[in-house]
């Protein structure tokens, strides 16, 4: 039985008790008080009636308290839901008004060669920067994903043509990045840098470490600053002044993979995106001639 129906029942019973008490009082007023026996019966009935009424009122108060507690719980839950919705709406509004970065241009082979030339030097930092630029170019991984790589993984990349990547964002936690034919050529050209690294570190050491503390993994801000310093220098040198940053390597890798395969699902799985929408934002639309050529190759 619901609380509302229970309270209605108690009120009804209270009303009946009140009517009985009033009836007994009427008898008392009408002269029945001269009859002691009847008077005693009436008084006993009145006592019972008042006791029953008091018990009913106590039960009614308890039910009201329970209803109040339930109402308070419902209001708290509604306020929590309201607060969550308001916070979600605020986040969406903030995201919609976020400051958007200027469109970044992709890294191509020509720009890559200029970056290598710009980062020439015998120092450990120069070598570290060249290896970072190389890996970003041939794997398309995020710059933050470089930091967990170890020397043993680099050896696997050179010997077997793939490297295991721990993804920073949603997607496969342990993802293999495979080299293309062009990627294998790029890696082979950096043989001297890799051999220098292998002489300095063992297999379990991180590739990217501080020059002063070789056992300390490098901070993301440091490797980003080193790479961006080279990309900005090359950008200023080029007539078109392209906007190239540490993320341009990923854009270039995805763009080239799309041009080579025209398979958006393959590109998505290769790059580790969770949705096709994320991948499609990196690739350009096909031209009319290209779409016509692809239709002509479909067997009917």
Protein traits:
300 residues; hpI Integrase, Chain A; 2 domains; 12 helices
Order of strands across the main sheet: 1-2
Looking at the overall shape, the CATH architecture of the largest domain is Orthogonal Bundle
Please work out how many helical segments DSSP would assign: 12
In the residues, how many domains can be counted?
A: 2
Instruction: Describe the main β-sheet briefly.
Output: 2 strands, antiparallel
Separation of the first and last Cα atoms: 70 Å
Please state the oligomeric state of the protein chains shown. Answer: single chain
- The count of strands amounts to 2
Secondary-structure element order, N to C: HHHHHEEHHHHHHH
- Write down the Rg: 40 Å
**Which stretches are poorly predicted, pLDDT < 50 over at least 5 residues?**
none
Structural category: mainly alpha
User: What's the CATH H-level superfamily name of the largest domain?
Assistant: Intergrase catalytic core
Mean pLDDT: 80
CATH class of the largest domain: Mainly Alpha
Instruction: Tell me, briefly, the overall form.
Output: elongated
Protein name: Putative integrase/recombinase protein
Organism: Plagiogramma staurophorum
Coiled coil: 57-91
Pfam family, one: Phage_integrase
């Amino acid at each position: 039985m619901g609380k509302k129906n229970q309270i209605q029942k108690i009120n009804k019973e209270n009303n009946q008790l009140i009517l009985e008490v009033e009836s007994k009082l009427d008898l008392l007023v009408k002269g029945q008080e001269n009859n002691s026996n009847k008077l005693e019966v009436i008084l006993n009935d009145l006592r019972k009636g008042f006791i029953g009424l008091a018990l009913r009122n106590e039960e009614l108060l308890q039910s009201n308290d329970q209803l109040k507690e339930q109402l308070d719980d419902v209001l708290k839950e509604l306020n929590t839901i309201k607060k969550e919705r308001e916070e979600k709406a605020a986040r969406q509004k903030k995201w919609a008004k976020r400051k958007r970065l200027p469109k970044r241009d992709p890294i191509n082979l020509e720009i890559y060669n200029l970056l290598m030339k710009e980062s020439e030097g015998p120092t450990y930092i120069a070598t570290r920067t060249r290896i970072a630029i190389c890996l970003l170019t041939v794997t398309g991984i995020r710059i933050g994903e470089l930091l967990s790589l170890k020397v043993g993984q680099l050896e696997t990349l050179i010997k077997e043509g793939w490297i295991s990547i721990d993804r920073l964002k949603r997607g496969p936690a342990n993802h293999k990045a495979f080299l293309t034919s062009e990627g294998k050529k790029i890696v082979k050209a950096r043989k001297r840098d890799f051999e220098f690294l292998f002489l300095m570190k063992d297999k379990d050491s991180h590739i990217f470490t501080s020059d002063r503390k070789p056992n300390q993994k490098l901070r993301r801000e440091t490797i980003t600053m080193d790479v961006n310093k080279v990309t900005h220098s090359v950008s200023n040198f080029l007539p078109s002044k392209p906007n190239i940053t540490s993320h341009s390597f990923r854009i270039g890798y995805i763009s080239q993979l799309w041009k080579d395969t025209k398979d958006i699902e393959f590109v998505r799985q290769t790059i580790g995106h969770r949705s096709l929408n994320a991948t499609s934002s990196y690739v350009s639309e096909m031209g009319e001639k290209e779409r016509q050529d692809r239709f002509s190759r479909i067997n009917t």
